[in-house]
Amino acid sequence: MRVDHLQNGQLDTDGLERFLNEAIGEVQWLMTTEWLFTDPPVSEGQEQTVPVLVPEELAVRLLLTDLESPSHRIIGDHPVVGVEARRWRWAAFVARPNDQGQGYFPWERGDA
Known about the structure:
Structural class: mainly alpha
Strand order of the largest sheet: 1-2
Radius of gyration: 14 Å
Helix content: 25-40%
Shape: globular
Number of helices: 3
Order of helices and strands: HEEHH
Distance between the termini: 23 Å
Number of strands: 2
Strand content: under 5%
Largest sheet: 2 strands, antiparallel
């Protein structure tokens, strides 16, 4: 997804988080600020992008919400399977470690 920059040059992840929370709900997505698992999509204006993982059943809602938005944020999408899904689970664990040593996506946690 495309992410804007703040005046100080930092990524405006707060703005992207607000968009995601409004579009599909809190704890329904996982984002990293670096492309750790796949190459970033090619965007027309060399815009800064970040990877965002959402449950498959919410992806359509996110796409439709983005189409209605004045500034489109979604650059591309692809299904996450196999080794990439395991890497995202690792990112989920790093973001929120637990005693079980397992990576739970935010939407899988009952206490999120």
